């Protein structure tokens, strides 16, 4: 009986933690080279803003010097983009390359295809908005 | 019975816990993916009926034909533009000075255009270029045809007068871009800018589609 209670408590905790971790979706980065190299990174989106707390402040300050003025724009952009579940925003195409930036079901998708390499990035808009808000809070001007 | 009951309870609890865990792990990403979609579906309906999209297409024909397509919802541009405070752009307004206008008083020019009757009222023809500015049916037309450049170019701009008025509503040395975008959002499907030369074709137009699948008929 005790074992069952422990198992229930443990599984409940894991379930809640799992649900919280994945509630914002997954950030996905996939890079495929035609020589066989592949880089696939899947990260729960909720973790990314949290991970900022572990970035050394000197690195963050330097990044914020450049990115700081654009953070309100980034936050406004992601907030507005959430209103458009399907939107082709930018497409650049020539004989060799194809770049697409679009919004799809609450995610910003960036696809780059060129000879020998393809890159696909999928970022939940909620994550970008949270990230911008977190960075704004940590910027010296805040 | 007394021995079996705790075992049964334990098995049930374990099964329940495992099911909860599996359901949470499997369904959380799905729920996360569905949530914006569900909330967005109603917005999509409103988007299809109200939203206006500004489209830009740049085409460079040739051996490796290059195409750039940009689609921006006007409402998004209206909200995002005021957040950019850089160089001459502040709070959705852009500053200009006499140097930019070569000494031309743009406000006086717009006032003159506004108060004039429909029809052609400015035509400048020279060796290098023809410039024609006209107001017709509530639209301002600007047509520039450069003749003697190495690559001939033709620029056509068609802007609703309401948009021009909104653009110049900010003050003496400012253009109110947000007000212009807002005025533009009440317009029907229209082509705004068309630039053609031997290398590139640029088109800017407005409609209610979220993809660049077609251009409105040329005015």
Quick recap of the structure?
The complex is a heterodimer of chains A (142) and B (219). By secondary structure, chain A is an alpha+beta fold. Chain A has helices spanning 2-22, 47-51, 57-67, 71-81, 125-138, and strands at 26-33, 38-44, 86-93, 98-104, 107-114, 117-124.
By secondary-structure content and strand pairing, the structural class of chain B works out as: alpha+beta
The N- to C-terminal Cα distance of chain A equals 53 Å
Average of the residue pLDDT scores of chain A? 85
Instruction: Specify the number of helices of chain B.
Output: 6
Series of secondary-structure elements of chain A, N-terminal to C-terminal: HEEHHHEEEEH
Give the topology string of chain B: H per helix, E per strand.
HEEHEEHHEEEEHEHEE
- Give the overall average pLDDT of chain B: 75
Classify the beta-strand content of chain B into a percent band.
25-35%
Work out the radius of gyration of chain A: 19 Å
Poorly predicted tracts of residues of chain B? 25-49
How would the blueprint of this fold be written?
The complex is a heterodimer of chains A (142) and B (219).
Chain A lengths: L1 H21 L3 E8 L4 E7 L2 H5 L5 H11 L3 H11 L4 E8 L4 E7 L2 E8 L2 E8 H14 L4
Antiparallel strand pairs in A: 1-2, 1-6, 3-4, 4-5, 5-6
Chain B lengths: L3 H47 L2 E8 L5 E8 H7 L8 E2 L2 E3 L2 H4 L4 H10 L3 E7 L3 E8 L2 E8 L6 E8 H7 L6 E3 H9 L4 E8 L3 E7 L12
Antiparallel strand pairs in B: 1-2, 1-11, 3-4, 4-9, 5-6, 6-7, 7-8, 8-10, 10-11
Helix pairs in contact in B: 2-6, 5-6
